[in-house]
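Team,

Forwarding the record for the chain on the shared tracking sheet. I've put the sequence and predicted structure together so nobody has to dig through attachments.
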Amino acid sequence: MPGFSLASRLDGAIGGKTATAFEKAFGVKTVGELLEHYPRRYARRGELTPIDSLPLGEPVTIVAEVVSANERRMQNRRGSLLEVVISDGDGRMSLTFFNQPWRLKDLTPGRRGIFSGKVGEYRRQTQLTNPDYELFDDIAEARAEAEVTAKRPIPIYPATSSIPSTLVQKTISLVLDGLGEVEDPLPDDLRTRRGLLPARAAFEQIHRPETDDDIPPAIATLRMHEAFVLQTALLQQRQFVRALSATKRPAAPGGLLERFDAILPFELTADQQSVGAQLEADLVADWPMNRLVQGEVGSGKTLVALRAMLQVAESGGQSALIAPTEVLAGQHLRSIARMLGPELAPEVMPTLLTGQMPAAERRRAALRVASGQARIVVGTHALLSATTTFADLGFVVVDEQHRFGVDQREALRAKGSSPHTLVLTATPIPRTVAMTVFGDLDVSTIRTMPAGRAGIQSFVAPLAEKPAWFARVWDRVAEEVALGRQAFVVCAAIDSDQLTADEKTDEPADAPAAAAEGARTRWGVVQVEALLSRLPTFSGIRVQILHGKMPSDEKDAVMQAFARGDIDVLVATTVIEVGVDVPNASTMVILEADRFGVSQLHQLRGRVGRGGLPGLCLLVTEASPGTSARSRVEAVAATLDGFALAEVDLDLRGEGDVLGGAQSGARSSLRLLRVVTDADLITEARAEGERLLADDPALRRHPGLAAALERRVGVEERAALAKS
């Protein structure tokens, strides 16, 4: 009988009811996905130990005979208790089982077996509670089996309350028993060169190791599988994009781009020039642009993107710029119209299209887009709706990658015929992460900042040691406002007294689990507004709040009032993280800064110091010195270099959620691979993948790899890996 393959549906292998439970608990639907639910660690059964010398609290394995077994009702709670006495000839101990009367028919006096569990004590007698056991008819067989079993590691799996580790172990064992041939995703020569196991043996040894020595080679093999399949998928995606033919969009002498450059009131920075040249070349290449541009907040990414949009507009092509929020879309449109000036703006007609626009206005905008009159379209997810059509969509720009889902990007691309794609991100991405997640994109970086930036000073206000500094923070804000400047105050929640599960949208996206460290959020937007209203120094200061639960038009109105200078201090959640531009804002106070991740603190800080004014960022924290929470905050205060911080973030967060919410499509595919520690392996896997695809682009000679790609990178994940 051939058995099942890695691609077989799980319900066919383990039955519908169990399969449904596993899908609900772990999201696994196929045999391969279940076998990639790897053990978290391994426990030991303990050496064979005489009953007389059992160590309390330790896991042990003993060979013994059942002396007696009795069931009784429990006095203080419902249910029954089964007490079994066993002996190894020298000593005696008891086994207790709660609410398992059916075990009486197994555990009859005279039966011998091996018993494994953790040693406890009750009324001065050693006992095992709910132990594992296996019964034998032959004592010699029992002893021999026990010797082997005692050395055999027990896999401990990620589990849930409904599916404990033991059930995962039994189910995986059942699946391994019925598994047929497993094709190897690694080429034979690569496996031989690195001394790796065949795929089938690797699965066996990671899930059913006989000894501790079986485990490391299995992990090394499966880690290479993962790196190699992931990198090959990304390289294939890149090949796929390069196989598409793109409409070339050259810039003409005296055209829109040249005229725009002539009216720019400043010189482009060296990085803006070199990245601009890359985009210019991409737009006339044989295949569509597929590029990620990363740069600090305020480094001029939008300007670089606008120059590319004008190049596309010269041939009548349209560009769509998608922003994650209404506020940001509106701001992009205003800044694009301002940069284009009165002469160029009417020619390309930059048009805003968002879901919150009044129906009549939205219809007019949609008509301009459909007719091709609007050559630059800025919007939110509304650009993806079925009713939005473009006359000639040639260029898609996605701002702030991490707020924008894979499916949504795909939907937008589908509106044009293989349009050029550019992704902008202000979150610097470490090299290994870029290679793992954006391996199919060409990556450009803008490091130099435009001249005229006054810079930002950052300070930690360490309330654990200096509680009096809390009052000083508000005095400092009042001093800045007295100078005619404005300030942001950022909180980790809307209302700390009423934190509900559905409020997580306004919690920091990459926040570490500060809650796990015990402390609840103390300062929500509501609490800070109340505090400031009681401070004498704030009596003449105009304070307003902003958070994600407010209606869109209200949020927009508040942001615009702040931008106009009608509000002095804006108390907000992280809704202000992305792209808000208020040149007069000089001060950023982040309360409970340890509740935010490194990259998010850096993003928030980038909201100030954007005009000619020097910026001030106060990171307020109650985290104790020496804790990882405090280290994160101190790391951000120590440098303004987002690229250095991205590497620090990797080190501090270790294996954690390195890929952030953005990359959840690809993150879900990382099982054993760790972006931080496996950088060399990832690099090597990429080189191997490049070699193999150059030699066998259609993978005709590597069916095992083709099958692994098909399994691992289903339609959704292929889109996730496309990241464009």
